[in-house]
Please model this.
Amino acid sequence: SLPPGTTAKDLVLELIGRLGSDGASYRAVEYHGSTARLTMEERITIANMGVEMGAKAALFPVDESTRLFLDGAGKELKDNAFEWSDDDAEFEREVSLDLGELGPVVALPGRVDEVVPIQDTAGVHVDQVLLGTCTNGRLSDLRSAATLLEGKRIAPGTRLLVLPASRRIYQAAASDGTLAILVGAGATVLPPGCGPCLGAHQGVLAPGEVCLSTANRNFRGRMGTPDSRIYLGSPLTAAATAINGVITDPREMLEAGKSGS
Model:
């Protein structure tokens, strides 16, 4: 299982760091092992970033969680209506990750595969934090960030932008009070869509600005001027960073919360 403070985003960034941005080019990536320990939303985050390692497809096995997810979406999963490798399939490469040994990581500006432990970037000043997009804009992502931000305020001079992945998620987060917590902490909620992730609107970076983003890409000029810098991290890292105004290991705040400080 993933340790507290470590998320599916950290897992897939760690994998991309090991494989490289072209490590799975024109290939299919299959995830085996303890996949049942991951929620469907966590699996979606991981599969979403398959293209960042060059993959043509990223797949998880179908299990009961898959069926329940599709039932909730009003979709029936018929037998054999999914793709998976044969039992005797031979793989070009196998990469093993011990989930329990993983920790929060960050992708450095300009390269999604230049991934370092979060301690290597701790204290880096940020002007903007982007929480959301297609990669980490699901309800569980917004809720996890809200657990750290509840009762707190973001750092002065730091912008926190929240970008739900869809209108349905936007409505659910509004209904259950998640958005109220985020807005109460000083966040600005954007309309669902791509928005500042690709430099379209509401959050385009100015020259010299630094952003910690939960999106999937951090190419030079991706979010606006080429003179800006984009770090990639998890929703928990985004929340902790917004509170302090510098890149922060979320485990510090989780431990502080346990101790009551």
